[in-house]
């Protein structure tokens, strides 16, 4: 009798022990172990990128897509208007295009228009050392100063992913979020206010 | 076959007993029925509109129902304090009281189950919980343990007295070998229902107020104070309204049980307060809210301080033999002790667990009228069930109800 | 999931062995085949009840989920089930189907309601059963509103474990994520249910949630404040899953902690167990204006809920299992939210975990959230 009771109690206790199904001590360990033989998935976010014209870039082993920039600039190529030196264009009676751009990016000692734009070749940007940088690869211009952000962007910690989480990776480039002439984010009102929560806490 | 006949006769006789009585009895039953109907009406509103008619929110997601459930588990478990001396320790003093105690347990358990169902968002899919046809998350979920132990305890507390009464009804003696094993099991079971219910809360790492090792033992102590206190009051009422004989020494012995339990409860309360307030941490905020209020939110303050002072007062009264042996004082002490523990182990335990919320937000909880209506209705149901059970049992025990061949 | 043992509730409501007269041979799992109503209009009540039951069982259907459910021999156990069933809604359902015999559609509606009431736990269903319930729900929506929804029952993909990272330095508190989440996930508009909370914290106070405001309304970012979002963290060791008495919530293979809204009994134990305020309860019937309903749904995700059930963030399972980012990630204008596959060593989320200084909330509780915070 006593043996049966003891056995029963043991069984209950044994059955009640719930730890043991977990193979790993933590989720990081699990991720490391299970990703060792990662074969890829059938899920792709390609279909969500169809509407966006992208170009592929490869930087330090990170290869991903960024949106095409030139097609997005309204009056590209610049040389379609900028056929003459700037001084001459200002005096003439042509329609004003982007005369209202005020540079609000670093201070005057650091930057002015020609830090990035090449007055001799409007169709390209220029690096600090005077080399041409394609408008599509404008991140190369930004990363001259913003090296930390560039590192994060390449890895994916900075910037915004588009399409989906699944490969192929497509990320917005610097100028998609930051206006290069005025790169900071504006303050604005939150889009939502929960009046119900306020009531609950009164 | 004969047994069925006896059973039929028993049911007929008991129906006869419970429908006859003094004017006071009828008034009592009518009042209970009325309250139950009001409760049912309130519940129908809740069923129709959802739990939004209660005061509960995403912040405080358990309220009056679960508080009462928790408290009543304690009351139910208390029957064991009468069962043990009678059946196990062979102290015949309690024989008279024990049937009443078990009746209280049955009523309390029915109320427990009713409170749980009232608290459910989807009572129509409750069958999902029935083992076999639903999915029963055993042993992981403490709630499934609770379902098992509560129903098991209910079964034990129905079968043991039923067996004894059934024998007595036929004028036979009840066989010890049949009911004593059941009584033995029910002793352990009573502790189990209480610990399991405490574990329900104790096991939640999300709620530091509950996640402490003393919760279970303190549950037991307070239950063994509040439950027998209620039984003393019930016995006092039965003694004065029926011819059922309950000796003074029975009540005195139960009073002793209440006293010891109340004293232990108080010691544990001090230990708990010391832990929370001597070196207060981030986890003491709920206790601060309960006892002193947080950020000007102090809805529970009057309640908990009433409870604490009643608790201390009752324990002091009970501790002195002179006072305890004076029945008028004893009944008063039992009453205030019952109220004190109802507050403390009810919403004094459940509500602060949710305040402040996981991210420190304080949203208070006030039960709505509908919630209170349903709660009263369920209490009336418990009283109703108990009255029926007790009236039949007393009828059999004093020999008024006997099987006629 | 394997098929070989019986894992869930099944019901045999007096299934007859005889062949029916081919009244329902269309083989559709959810569509009405139109022959029931005309046949049953002149039956006696008793015969009608039988026919109604037959209709709900669908004798000659393809071997779908419900075929399997109801295809058990009547024994004492199923007789007991039958009893339980009839106690619960039997009377109601039969009376509905009896009183509306005139319309084929209402007949079908009653049939769907009946089958939905007595279906099993989604977690334990086979793929066919999942498809069947999704088909029924789509058809039911069509019958009720005349509009079509697309509902998926897509399972977790192999080699996927979803994870999330939140850049505290980048969040500006615009709450675009909250907006997108509500619109995507069909949350109750009346109670303004929101899965995401953005906490406005004071600089220099650390992560002091007590002094944070999660319901601010002023121009953001406010001077001297930073913002931190919380939602369900999809813990790898979720306490909410442990405590559920009916296994209505569980962790999927891809790490999502999901709820079967139809299996949930509404006890709210999971809510008490969650240390992260990740769960929401439908205290009343959730209301979403028809024009605002997101019709791209998943059974475990944003399909319309009923009152008295639990719900929560699912990392937008309807989107994430299709390769998209959750709505909050897509809506965030600052790129503070990063989502991806933790098992893909080349994913951006992995890069963040390996190269940034990440931490999680209340790590000491051992819940192993798959939601990391980091700063620039």
Could you describe the 3D structure shown?
Chain A: Residues 105-149 form the Doubled CXXCH motif domain. Chain A: It comes from Seonamhaeicola maritimus. The complex is a heterotrimer of chains A (202), B (405) and C (376). Chain A is α+β, with helices and mostly antiparallel strands and 202 residues long. Chain A has helices spanning 2-16, 27-34, 86-91, 113-116, 139-142, 147-155, 174-177, 195-201, and strands at 54-59, 62-67, 125-126, 132-133, 161-162, 170-171. Chain A contains eight helices and six strands; from the N terminus they run ααββααββααββαα. The longest helix of chain A is centred in the N-terminal third of the chain and has 15 residues, at 2-16. Chain B is an all-alpha fold and 405 residues long. Chain B has a single domain (22-397), classed as Formate dehydrogenase/DMSO reductase fold (Up-down Bundle), CATH 1.20.1630. By secondary structure, chain C is α/β, with parallel strands linked by helices. Chain C folds into two domains: 36-148, no CATH class; 154-376, Alpha-Beta Plaits, CATH 3.30.70. Chain C is 31% helix and 12% strand. Chain C has helices at 36-40, 45-57, 65-70, 76-99, 104-117, 127-145, 176-185, 239-243, 269-273, 317-320, 327-331, 348-355, and strands spanning 150-152, 162-167, 197-202, 225-230, 249-251, 257-259, 279-281, 296-298, 310-312, 337-341, 371-374. In chain C, the strands form five sheets. In chain C, strands 10-2-11 form a three-stranded mixed beta sheet. A two-stranded parallel ribbon of chain C has the order 1-8. In chain C, strands 3-4 form a two-stranded antiparallel sheet. At the B-C interface, helix 6 of B face helix 4, helix 8, helix 9 and strand 7 of C.
Short description:
The complex is a heterotrimer of chains A (202), B (405) and C (376). Chain A has 202 residues and is an alpha+beta fold.
Provide the domain count of chain C: 2
Please outline the major beta sheet of chain C: 3 strands, mixed
CATH second-level architecture of the largest domain in chain C: 2-Layer Sandwich
Total number of β-strand segments of chain A? Answer: 6
In percent terms, what proportion of residues of chain C is strand?
Answer: 5-15%
DSSP helix fraction of chain C: 25-40%
Distance between the termini of chain A: 61 Å
What class would the helix/strand composition of chain A place it in? alpha+beta
Give the overall form of chain A: elongated
Helix share bin of chain A: 25-40%
Q: Give the N-terminus to C-terminus distance of chain C in angstroms.
A: 42 Å
């Amino acid at each position: 009798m006593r043996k049966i009771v003891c056995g029963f109690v043991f069984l209950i206790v044994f059955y009640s022990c719930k730890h043991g199904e977990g193979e790993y001590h933590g989720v990081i360990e699990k991720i490391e172990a299970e990703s060792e033989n990662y074969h890829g998935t059938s899920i792709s976010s390609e279909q969500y990128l169809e509407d966006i014209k992208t170009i592929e870039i490869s930087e330090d082993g990170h290869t991903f897509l960024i949106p095409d920039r030139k097609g997005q600039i309204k009056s590209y190529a610049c040389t379609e208007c900028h056929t003459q030196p700037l001084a001459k264009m200002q005096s003439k009676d042509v329609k004003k295009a982007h005369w209202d751009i005020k540079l609000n990016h670093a201070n005057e000692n650091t930057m002015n228009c020609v830090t990035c734009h090449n007055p001799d070749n409007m169709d390209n940007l220029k690096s600090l050392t005077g080399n041409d940088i394609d408008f599509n690869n404008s991140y190369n211009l930004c990363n001259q100063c913003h090296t930390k952000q560039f590192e994060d962007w390449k890895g994916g910690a900075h910037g915004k992913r588009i399409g989906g989480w699944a490969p192929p990776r497509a990320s917005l480039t610097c100028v998609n979020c930051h206006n290069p002439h005025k790169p900071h984010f504006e303050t604005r009102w939150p889009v939502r206010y929960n009046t119900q929560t306020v009531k609950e806490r009164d | 076959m004969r047994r069925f006949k006896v059973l039929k006769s028993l049911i007929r006789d008991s129906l006869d007993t419970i429908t006859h009585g003094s004017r006071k009895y009828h008034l009592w039953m009518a009042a209970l029925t009325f309250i139950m109907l009001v409760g049912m009406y309130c519940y129908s509103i809740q069923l129709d509109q959802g739990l939004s008619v209660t005061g509960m929110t995403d912040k405080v997601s358990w309220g009056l129902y679960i508080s009462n459930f928790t408290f009543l588990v304690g009351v139910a478990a208390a029957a064991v304090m009468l069962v043990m001396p009678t059946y196990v320790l062979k102290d015949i003093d309690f024989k008279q009281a024990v049937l009443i105690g078990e009746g209280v347990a049955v009523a309390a358990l029915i109320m427990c189950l009713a409170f749980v169902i009232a608290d459910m968002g989807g009572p129509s899919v409750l069958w999902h919980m029935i083992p076999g046809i639903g999915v029963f998350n055993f042993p992981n979920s403490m709630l499934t343990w609770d379902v098992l132990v509560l129903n098991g305890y209910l079964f034990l507390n129905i079968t043991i007295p039923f067996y004894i009464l059934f024998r007595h009804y036929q004028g036979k003696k009840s066989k010890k070998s049949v009911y004593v094993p059941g009584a033995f099991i029910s002793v352990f079971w009573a502790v189990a229902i209480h610990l399991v219910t405490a574990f329900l809360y104790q096991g939640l790492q999300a709620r530091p107020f509950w996640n402490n090792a003393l919760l279970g033992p303190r549950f037991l102590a307070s239950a063994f104070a509040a439950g027998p206190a209620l039984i003393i009051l019930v016995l006092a009422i039965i003694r004065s309204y029926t011819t059922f004989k309950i000796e003074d020494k029975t009540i005195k012995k139960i009073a002793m049980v209440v006293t010891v339990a109340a004293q232990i409860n108080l010691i544990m309360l001090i230990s708990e307060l010391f832990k929370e307030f001597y070196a207060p941490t981030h986890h003491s905020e709920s206790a601060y809210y309960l006892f002193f209020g947080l950020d000007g939110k102090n809805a529970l303050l009057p309640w908990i301080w009433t409870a604490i002072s009643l608790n201390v007062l009752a324990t002091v009264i009970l501790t002195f033999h002179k006072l305890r042996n004076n029945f008028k004082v004893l009944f008063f002490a039992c009453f205030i002790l019952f109220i004190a523990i109802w507050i403390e182990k009810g919403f004094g335990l459940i509500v602060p667990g949710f305040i402040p919320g996981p991210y420190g937000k304080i949203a208070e909880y006030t039960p709505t009228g509908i919630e209170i209506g349903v709660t009263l209705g369920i209490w009336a149901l418990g009283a109703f069930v108990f009255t029926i059970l007790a009236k039949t049992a007393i009828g059999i025990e004093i020999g008024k109800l006997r099987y006629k061949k | 999931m394997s098929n070989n043992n019986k894992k869930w509730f099944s019901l045999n409501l007096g299934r007859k062995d005889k062949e029916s007269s081919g009244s329902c041979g269309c083989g559709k799992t959810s569509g009405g085949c139109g022959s029931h109503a005309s046949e049953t209009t002149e039956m006696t009540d008793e015969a009608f009840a039988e026919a109604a039951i037959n209709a709900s069982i669908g004798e000659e259907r393809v071997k779908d989920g419900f075929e399997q459910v109801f295809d058990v021999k009547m024994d004492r156990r199923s007789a007991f089930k039958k009893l339980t069933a009839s106690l619960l809604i039997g009377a109601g359902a039969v009376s509905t189907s009896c009183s509306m015999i005139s319309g084929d559609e209402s007949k079908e509606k009653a049939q769907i309601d009946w089958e939905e009431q007595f279906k099993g736990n989604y977690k334990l269903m086979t793929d066919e059963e999942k498809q069947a319930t999704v088909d029924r729900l789509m058809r039911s929506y069509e019958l009720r509103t005349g509009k079509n929804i697309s509902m998926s029952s897509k399972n977790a993909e192999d080699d996927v474990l979803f994870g999330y990272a939140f850049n505290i330095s980048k969040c500006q508190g615009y709450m675009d994520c909250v907006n997108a989440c509500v619109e995507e996930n069909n949350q109750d508009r009346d109670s303004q249910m929101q899965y995401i909370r953005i906490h406005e914290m004071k600089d220099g106070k650390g992560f002091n949630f007590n002094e944070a405001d999660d319901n601010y309304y002023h121009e953001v970012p406010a001077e001297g404040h930073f913002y931190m979002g919380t939602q369900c963290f999809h813990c790898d060791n979720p306490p909410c899953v442990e405590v559920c008495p009916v296994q209505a919530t569980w962790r999927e293979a891809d790490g999502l902690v999901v709820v079967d809204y139809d299996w949930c009994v509404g006890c709210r134990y999971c809510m008490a167990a969650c240390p992260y305020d990740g769960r929401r309860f439908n205290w009343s019937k959730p209301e979403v204006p028809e024009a605002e309903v997101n019709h791209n749904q998943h059974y475990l995700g944003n399909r319309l809920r009923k009152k008295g059930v639990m719900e929560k963030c699912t990392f937008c399972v309807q989107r994430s299992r299709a390769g998209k980012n959750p709505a909050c990630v897509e809506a965030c204008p600052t790129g503070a939210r990063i989502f991806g596959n933790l098992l893909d060593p080349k994913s951006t989320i992995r890069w963040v975990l390996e190269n940034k200084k990440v931490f999680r909330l209340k790590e000491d509780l051992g819940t192993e959230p798959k939601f990391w915070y980091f700063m620039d």
